[in-house]
Description:
The structure holds two protein chains of two kinds. By secondary structure, chain A is of the alpha/beta class. Chain A is built from 17 helices and 20 strands. Chain A folds into three domains: 6-239, P-loop containing nucleotide triphosphate hydrolases (Rossmann fold); 247-336 and 419-503, Rossmann fold, CATH 3.40.50.300; 343-418, no CATH class. In chain A, strand 4 (59-64) and strand 5 form a beta hairpin. In chain A, helix 14 packs parallel to helix 15. The longest helix of chain A has 16 residues, at 175-190. Chain A is globular. Chain B has a two-stranded antiparallel ribbon with strand order 1-2. Chain B is globular.
Amino acid sequence: MAAPLIELLDISRSFGSTRAVDDVSLTVQSGSVHAVTGENGAGKSTLMKILAGVIRPDAGTIRLEGCEVHFSSPLGALGHGISTVFQEFTLIPNLTVAESIFLGREPMRRWGGIDYPKLRSGAAAALARLESAIDPDGMVRNLTVAEQQIVEIAKGLSADARVFIFDEPTAALNSADVEKLTRLIRDLKARGKAVLYISHRLEEIFALCDTVTVMKDGRHVATRPTAELNEHDLVAMMVGRELSSFFPPRAGTVGEPILTADDLRVTAAAPSVRLKLYRGEILGLAGLEGQGQRGIARALAGIEPAEAGRIEKTDRDQKRQALPVDAGIGRTLASGIGFVPEDRKGEGLFLDLAIRDNIALGVETGRPFWTLAPNTTAVIGSMMQSMNIRARNADAIVGSLSGGNQQKVLIGRWLSSGVDVLIIEEPTRGVDVGAKAEVYKLLRAFSDAGGAVLVLSRETPELIGLCDRLLVVHGGAIVAEMAADGATEHDILHSAIGSRQAA
Amino acid sequence: MAMLSALLPAPRNSRAGPWYLVLACLVVVVAVVSWSAPLFLTPGNLSNVAAQITPLVITAIGQTLVIITGGLDLSVGSLISLTTAIIVLDLPGWAMVLLAIAAAVTVGTVNGVGIAYLNVHPIIMTLASMSVVQGVALITRPVPGGTVPGWISGAVNESLFGLPAALVWIAVAIILAAFLIYRTRFGLHLFAIGGNPNSALMNGVRVRRNIVLTYILSSLFAMGAGFFLAGRIASGDANVGTVFGLDSITAVALGGTSLSGGVGSLVGTVLGSVLVGVIGNGMNLMNVSAFLQIVIKGALLLAVVSVQRRKQIGL
């Protein structure tokens, strides 16, 4: 048998005192799709960054078709035929598509200028191989996320890469684009390329990959053909224990309405929406991507004020309070509504600050500005303990935490501020399997303690497992309501699409 | 017309910024000035305007390179002053030129290394070097005076093929910069760095080296402006360059170049410089006090920057 296309041998890499990757070996054959999975912080991203040339290993060797190779930059790796589509793209908004594809390795003329005709035709050829209609002369800033991904892949194709690394490629895609990407990856495989696919999403791993490698705590756990496994086995390997109850039990009984919206219009043209959130329940907004769930949630949270409507919040003393639609985030927060955005790094957390400061913000919320800052050490300590935030101490910088722990810090901020309604978008985006269960438990504990949660998620199984009640949104309107217990993905999809046919 | 096509960014190139707005402003200002000050459109005054504008155009072109990467160079003014002070030193011509180039390269390198390698903020870094260079210029030439070599005066004041020398200086600066910005890999990488330095790095762009290079180029363009200015005022003057720091930034911003980097054009900078020059000349003709002119210039920069969308290129 010929030497495998890529061999990683005994790779190790430490950051400070933590061994992010500990003596890991991995072999990838050409013409195959190889999944690398594991919880966040398992070291899979670090391993891929080593292969992509972003970071160098402390020890170990990389072999390409049996020959040892070294590279010090992503461009160097690309020169060896290894192309990486990073989770956070490396495209630059003010360059054209063609310039982006050839950035750093522009075709040159003899006298030192860039050969623009060649650059353009090369880019067009690479895009054509992906059957993409993207204009090579268009600016990157005008592309959708899915299109940007295609440009990243085209970059690899134009460099004649033989290995493609995808780091969580579907995290930001809607289902139609996920399907397109799946086709593209199968196509790469058919052309004899080797694909490394990093993902948490089990269904994708089974649908797409031939082999799966599981990592945990920087170590290699197992490499198996996916055909020999089922989801249950895989999850067990990832967390190292059986996940008996992934989702916490549902609410027994629910209380009186805590948040009601009547005749809510997100925009002047949007249909009117009416919803009630009851104390003690977790309510999910389901539906196809981009059908207006986000607008409704953000209008309720006061982030993006609605055009018209009545919002009413009942507080713990049964006092009702009308919230004007244009009240703004300050008012809604004061009335006890916390908001956890999907983009927690950009809109939620202060990544450069400590856990302490990020949570203290919640405690400070609503206090008059002239009061002295309270001592929050005890509150934060108990919050970190009860939420099981894994960090050295409260002074750890939030940006250095894993996705799951970051999410817990953000939820912790609102829990410590005493809100009783939590509006949360994509509660487990970029959160690993083990921490997902913990986030679910936290949300359930919050609702059991007399709060209420409104959840938005792209992952329908998550909504079904987590929520008590589901509202299906289509075209900005609520088209169906169902109990989550017993609902199936099929039911939800049916309401979402059925309504489209009716309309 | 290769020069013109290089100067005008192709239509596909929408990272040029709204440079056409300055063109519209220029038309309006020229109309207003020539209506209220009939002297403006006389050939004598126009060639005077061209000569007044030349050092600004040259400086602003260098400034554009820096601003496209998201930086700022406040030290260009003092470097112009220092250059004029060096020119009137009692040295052989070749030694004087070498010394001026060495001074410019040193200032640019120090700025660039401080900013790219030591992570000093561009404003702080160039504010500091501005003060240092200003001091050195004053030490070299405490009072204005000295003799400017004849070949420099000639190159500034004579005409070539019937065109004032000033236009030749401007043309050379524009052609050089147009080639750099629109035809070379260096130029593309400037925009990439201004767009997103981290992504640029990931794509193999040598971010730090390129940033150092832009500050060196900015200093060299300022040095060129210093030569022109020395020829025009026929003396060395350690304070003559002071206004160019602010004026060059105003000209670049007027030209639609984003002060947060990544978006900009050469044509905008040239037009912006002309606009600043015409406004200055017009105010002179209308007998606006020099002090009030300083107030108006500052207000103009503020107005332009307020109008700019500072997150123009955010994805």
